[in-house]
Amino acid sequence: MLKNRRQSVNRPPTPDLTDDRAKVPTLQEVINIKLIESGEKEQLMELVREKLTDCGWKDEMETIVRAYIKKQGRNNVTLDELVRVITPKGRASIPDSIKAELLQRIRTFLVSAAL
Question: What are phi and psi of 58, to 5 degrees?
Fold first, then answer.
């Protein structure tokens, strides 16, 4: 009945109520829920924070941020801009050993949780 209404140019159409009820969570969503419910996600986050600090990654990112702010001028940088510029550099510079350890911990969790 309402399907014949014109869609707004500025925003996407409102989803039907039936869409929300029929939505089945993806495997990634299920894993995320299990990690949160078990408390494992917080433990993994703490592990990553510790490892990144120990290897000097955190200090390296602080140096990059300070240099960017100095170059642009303190009053000319927004948080959104800083995140947009620094995030790709930060992700690319995470050591492979930390990524591998995190992946192994997630795999071990999935096996123990029988997912």
Answer: -60, -45
CB proximity list for 30: less than 8 A, separation 6 or greater? 115
- Sequence-distant (≥ 6) Cβ neighbours of residue 35 within 8 angstroms: 41, 44, 106, 109
The residues near 41 (Cβ < 8 Å, ≥ 6 apart) are 32, 35
Furthest C-alpha separation in the chain: 60
CA-to-CA distance for 98 and 52, rounded, in angstroms?
8
Q: How far apart are CA 30 and CA 49, in angstroms?
A: 24
pLDDT digits (tens, 9 = 90+) for 20-68: 556 888 989 999 999 999 999 999 999 999 999 999 999 999 999 999 9
Q: Residue for token digits 């800083």?
A: 82
How far is residue 111's CA from residue 115's CA, in Å, rounded to a whole number?
A: 6
Report pTM: 0.69
